[in-house]
């Protein structure tokens, strides 16, 4: 019975940011659980690589080359799903700058991708689920940055905090329709997004982050994908408006 709760056979999932990192790992795992997965990203090559991985394992994958900041593109892609059971809004970008050096264009760019892109995905998914009368699950991607202050993370942290508020608000609005909305807030995860330093600097950063965790390690994309699967599946059927934190214990908020 416990294993069956994670079975997504016959369901359809849509994953943004599916070309790499957490998005790719989530798309692959959702497919392994039985879902037909619609993979969306602006990185066309990475997108096809993800689809190939899914199909090689016997799964079903559809590709949508799009920009999540373009509402019309998202609407068209979601409309291509005959049925939508799961939306995993994972796409995002990283930016780092001290508060006093943050430019308007930096803030606008990060908010547009990391908040508006998630908002658009949530809106289109919720509309589709309502129209199809599907008791679906929407999973947003927040960050451990919402629980702690980090130097240089104003734009990123503010956008992710907005995602948390979106998640809670949408959960209250969609709950009466049987649609659940939850967020995942990862800690330091080894992905192409965090791998933006030279080898020595990256090793130093990962060693430091591992020491901060009671588990003594940094996370992998698959660690977050399992959280996405949990929230997408019937195993979390009584969970909505919540933040799941696969962060290795670095932050333990009440």
TrEMBL record:
Keywords per UniProt: Oxidoreductase
Enzyme Commission number(s) from the entry: 1.1.1.-
GO molecular function: oxidoreductase activity
Pfam families: adh_short_C2 (PF13561)
Keyword Oxidoreductase in record: yes
CDD domains: SDR_c
Keyword Oxidoreductase found: yes
EC class: oxidoreductase
Family affiliation: Belongs to the short-chain dehydrogenases/reductases (SDR) family.
Stated name of the protein: SDR family NAD(P)-dependent oxidoreductase
Organism: Streptomyces coerulescens
């Amino acid at each position: 019975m416990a294993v069956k709760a994670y079975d997504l056979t016959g369901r359809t999932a849509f994953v943004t940011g599916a070309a790499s990192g957490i998005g790719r790992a989530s798309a692959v795992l959702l497919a392994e659980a039985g879902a037909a997965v619609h993979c969306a990203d602006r990185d066309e090559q990475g997108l096809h690589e993800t689809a190939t991985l899914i199909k090689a394992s016997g799964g079903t994958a559809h590709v949508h080359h799009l920009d999540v900041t373009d509402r019309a593109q998202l609407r068209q892609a979601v409309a291509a799903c005959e049925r939508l059971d799961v939306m995993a809004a994972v796409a995002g970008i990283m930016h780092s700058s001290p508060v006093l050096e943050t430019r308007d264009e930096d803030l606008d760019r990060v908010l547009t991708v990391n908040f508006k892109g998630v908002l658009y995905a949530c809106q289109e998914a919720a509309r589709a689920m309502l129209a199809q009368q599907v008791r679906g699950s929407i999973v947003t991607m927040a960050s451990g940055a919402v629980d702690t202050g980090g130097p240089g993370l104003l734009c990123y942290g503010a956008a992710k905090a907005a995602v948390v508020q979106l998640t809670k608000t949408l959960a209250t609005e969609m709950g009466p329709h049987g649609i659940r909305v939850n967020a995942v807030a990862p800690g330091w995860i080894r992905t192409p997004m965090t791998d933006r330093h030279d080898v020595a600097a990256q090793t130093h950063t990962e060693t430091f982050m591992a020491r901060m965790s009671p588990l003594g390690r940094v996370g992998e994309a698959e660690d977050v994908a399992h959280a996405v699967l949990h929230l997408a599946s019937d195993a979390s059927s009584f969970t909505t408006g919540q933040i799941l934190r696969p962060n290795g214990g670095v932050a333990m908020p009440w």
